Automatic annotation (TrEMBL):
Keyword Transmembrane on entry: yes
Protein family according to the UniProt entry: Belongs to the sodium:solute symporter (SSF) (TC 2.A.21) family.
Ranges that cross the membrane: 6-24, 45-63, 75-94, 123-144, 164-182, 189-207, 240-261, 273-298, 318-336, 370-387, 393-418, 425-445, 451-470
Protein location: Membrane
NCBIfam families found in the cross-reference section: panF, sss
Membrane topology: Multi-pass membrane protein
Keywords assigned: Membrane, Symport, Transmembrane, Transmembrane helix, Transport
PROSITE patterns per record: NA_SOLUT_SYMP_3
Gene, per the UniProt record: panF
Main location: membrane
Record protein name field: Sodium/pantothenate symporter
Amino acid sequence: MNLELMLPLIIYLVLVLGVGFWASRHRAGGDFVQEYFIGNRSMGGLVLAMTLVATYTSASSFIGGPGAAYKIGLGWVLLAMIQLPTVWLTLGVLGKKFAIIARRVNAVTINDMLWARYQSKAVVILGSVTIILAFIATMVVQFIGGARLLETATGLSYQQGLMLFASCVLLYTVIGGFRAVVMTDALQGIIMLIGTGALLAGILVAGDGLPNLIHQLKVIDPKLVSPQGAGDMLTQPFMLSFWILVCVGVVGLPHSALRCFGYRDSKALHRGILIGTVVSALLMFGMHLAGALGRAILPGMDSPDKIMPSLMMEVLPPWLAGVFLAAPMAAIMSTIDSQLIQASATLVKDLYLNYLNPKQEKLEVRIPRLSLLCTLILGTLVLLAALQPPEMIIWLNLLAFGGLQAVFLWPLVLGLYWSRANGPGALASMVSGIVCYGVLSQWGIKLAGLHAIVPSLGLGLATFVVVSLLTPPPDQSVRRLFEQQ
């Protein structure tokens, strides 16, 4: 094992654990639920931007996305830039109104908001189950990405890399809670920018410049430099579907929407939008371009998901390769810790406190212990599922993302902006959306060549509107609560 290569990663892991211990001190004598799950709503603009970018930028972005670009070509780089407005959309659509109402109703989780808006146990329970199942699937992707990264870069076996990575993530997340998650996200965003820039520069130097690299791609396959990509995969219906799945639909991702609860004030929101959009653009373009150009440097990769760590080892000196090794590790850890915290909050806050412990006895003892237990159980389940990894992990990640969007997008957005939205309409939308998405995905049905998310969201919207109009409107108290600015 190359110590010069591993040193930046070791330094990064020590810093992360240090932040976790520092953040745990804020819980002493305070409200455990507010501090552990939402960080007492204290994020500034930089931290807000970085936590959104780092949460969204995951193993799929650093490992799976460049792997797809390696296989398909420069067309995938253009397609990936569809994700550019995600921070702006999330904070612009949800940010201000979400934060105001969350403070009014003391919401700590997304399901707290759904309960305040729809007053429906069925909506909360369905939302909770969806979050837990989908997060397990997406966390499997992150664990696979982290293990493959360590396997390729250090020579450890896949199983050894998986155990090392899982142990670090679980320890850090359990210790720190939400405050540690968002504080380290700022650190992770900086590391990701440095690592991406270093790798892209190394590829350009190793390939004798961009024109020569593009020429090499043409020699391998002329379609690698065409908008349609190798295999003519990037058709118009696919691109429309991708635009919905990874851009517009991101507003419905619970772990991104939750960030709207935790910022400090309007100034932090506006700074977050600007900084987050710029950082997201640099990361998305740099990562995917590196993957596409990497085909000219290493044309014979058996697994596209290994292209980024393999490029790191090929074009960078060991110490700089170590910096890049920390970059995707930062992206992966930032997504896992966010999802573990929210899944734990869903089990403890949304289900246990609300339905299994109506008398709320001895919460100061039970809640910390239950949070720890839930995190460990979920982490163990994800670890077991990751022991047999599939190829092209980006598709598993996108499948789980689509399921979350089919359930949450319209209840969140229409709940904020349509006064007539009610509980039956939200429940009908969630059920019809996830059933449609599951059926189309399971049997590979593509209506008019579209990804399953497009008809699922269309059906969910139509069902929401029709059922809401055919059933009684929400109480006036609920409408006033959500209409006041």
